[in-house]
Amino acid sequence: xxxxxxxxxxxxxxxxxxxxxxxxxxxxxxxxxxxxxxxxxxxxxxxxxxxxxxxxxxxxxxxxxxxxxxxxxxxxxxxxxxxxxxxxxxxxxxxxxxxxxxxxxxxxxxxxxxxxxxxxxxxxxxxxxxxxxxxxxxxxxxxxxxxxxx
Length: 150
Hints:
The protein is an alpha/beta fold and about 150 residues long. Helices cover about 35% and strands about 20% of the residues. It is built from five helices and five strands; from the N terminus they run βαβαβαβααβ. The protein has a five-stranded parallel sheet, sandwiched between helices.
């Protein structure tokens, strides 16, 4: 029995991440693929106020952010991936997006990653970096990067 074709679909729930949906549906249908939808939660950063006695705003815990992301991922899948034929596998991880996406794909022996790219200007790209670029450079499987209209 052969293993199913596995596609990893990262999302940050942005409009840009919707640009890949047509490709996900097309390839998943053609390959009868198992789709893994993943989102990455950034570890909360805690900064100490510079002034003694300054009011602080409570920062959500990693568990709270993970639960919120799990709920958002479920809604995202129901809304945008309901017609794939099989329900995607949901996965929420904590860490740096590119590292976690590549690690997850390697861990499940994915055949492909389909990821959106925003098409930042060269200056913004230099300052902000690119999750998509890091995934393309590091992944051990093919990566389809789809530019959004954003």
